[in-house]
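Batch manifest, entry 17 of 40.
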Amino acid sequence: MHFYILTLFPEMIEHVLSTSIIGRAVQNGYLHIQAVNIRDFTADKHKKVDDYPYGGGAGMVMQAQPVYDAWRYVCTQIGFVPARPRTIYLTPQAPVFSQSMAKELAREEHLVFLCGHYEGIDERVLEEIVTDYVSIGDYVLTGGELPAMVMADAIARMVPGVLKNELSASTESLEGGLLEYPQYSRPEEWNGKKVPPILLSGNHAKVDEWRREQSILRTKSRRPDLLAQAELTDKERERYV
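Output type: structure tokens
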């Protein structure tokens, strides 16, 4: 899978997404991540990419030309010209990113992320290139780089080969609309707290049953809003909802 991130701070993207699981997946060829510096495409000799907004107001606005030319460069690289690749603009003025959205986007071969700054980006270029507007939450950040990396990380985990243990993605939080069950490791007793005996029993069917129950109870306690849409049996729904 190929990620292209249009940004004013490519070093920020490169530093974070070259480490840990994502970095290893890039090295092993499961992912391709390219940070494209929008400043490289400005016609201004001082590498300026912003200007005052028409109509007045505080702050500056990113100009259309360098953003568009950076995007066209990516399109040419991946052979999408004149068609548009899936291009995501990170903005709080959009639907909130979710696990189901990560799964859907993971089916794409190429994704382009556009990171805004200042007061935003000239609306005309957004209308020209953006296919999806996505937020990671109802708050405002200084730029789109953190949201882009959050989304890239969540989407990349859905790509076959990225996780060493493919089972991890199918048992973690939000799969089936439930939070993940509690996890324990050695030692068997720590700080006066013991591992639940069922996990030491060796009875895998009972362990699976316990984990399922704990997932439901944890969801009910911490995210009751999820239960209405969770994948529950009629018996479970009658008992827990």
